Amino acid sequence: MNLYHHYFLDDGSVAFDANPILKEEQLNKYNFEDFCEIIPSEETKEIFKGNKLVFKTIPTGFIICAKAEETAPNSGTYKPFVSLSQTSVFNFLIYMKDSLFENYSTVNSKPFIPYFFSNKKPVSEGASFKYIDLETTTLPIDNFTIQQDSYDEIGKTLSKKEKIGLFGIISLEMAGDNTVPFDGNARNILNVNGTLQVNTKNFKLQIKNRSTIWNYRDASDSVLLHTTDPIELPLTKNGIIGYSFNGEVRPSAFPSRILFEKDSGGNIIKTFSEIYINQ
Fold first, then answer.
1. What is the pTM of this model?
2. From CA 111, how far away is CA 101, in angstroms rounded?
3. What digits encode the pLDDT tens for the residues 168-194?
4. 71 near 78, Cβ under 8 Å?
5. Which of the residues 54, 73, 163, 172 has an alpha carbon 20 to 30 A from that of 258?
6. What is the tally of structural domains in the chain?
7. Which tens digit of pLDDT belongs to each residue from 27-71?
8. Residue at which a domain ends, from 154, 185, 207
C-alpha cells in the first residue's frame, strides 16, 4: 500500500510520475511519515495477532507480511499459514501530523467525514462509490467521500480515541467486490480458494499539491510588486518553479505563508502565497 503526495515528490512543475525514471528517483528520497501516520485499527491489530500477520511501514507506505506455506511441493502456490476468511477485513487509520498539510494540499487534514478507501462498497453507498486506487489508476482523493450513514456504521468498529483527527480509513476485505466492471481491475487480496495471489495487489492513495497565486512584496514596506494577479503555480518541496517578472527570476513560494480570499458564504475563491523579497 503506497501513499504519494505531489508536494514532496514532484520535481518543481514536473509531476513525479511523469515517467518511470523520474518516479524512481523521487521515491528514493521520499518518506510518507514526514507528514502522515498510518496505523492498523485496534480491532485489526487483534486480527494480526491471531493470524501471525505483521504490519510494517516502508518509506512509501506499508506492507503486511504473512507466514505462508506452499500448497504442494514445487507448486508455486502459497496460502497463509493461518487461513483467513474471505470476509476478513483489515482497517488502517490515516492521520495527518504536519500542521502545514492543508497549506500545500488540496484537501483538509481533518475532513468532517473521513475519506474511505476500500475494495468493498458499504451497503449504504450508491453507484457513485469509488474503489481504492491501484498503482495503475489515479483518482482525486476527494472522490473517496462517503455518506454519514456509511461512516456511522464503519465507525462502530473504532474507539472514540481512534476517531479523533481521523483523515481517512483504508479498509481491505480479503475477497472484496468484483471491481472488474468498475475499471477493468480486480481488487481481491486472496483467491477464492484462500491462496495468495502470485502478483500481489498494490493499492495506493495519491494527494495533489495546492497551487496558489504567488504575491511578491517588498520586504522593507510590504508593498505589492505587481498590479495584477500572476498565474497560479504549484507548491513543491523539491525542484525549481521557473517564475520571473520585470526581467528577473523570482524565488519560489513556501507553504508557511498562505492567505485565502473567500466569498460571502465562506467559500475559498483565491489562495495566495506571500513572498517577501529585497529590492
1. 0.93
2. 13
3. 999 999 999 999 999 999 999 999 988
4. yes
5. 163
6. 2
7. 999 999 999 999 999 999 999 998 889 999 999 999 998 888 878
8. 207
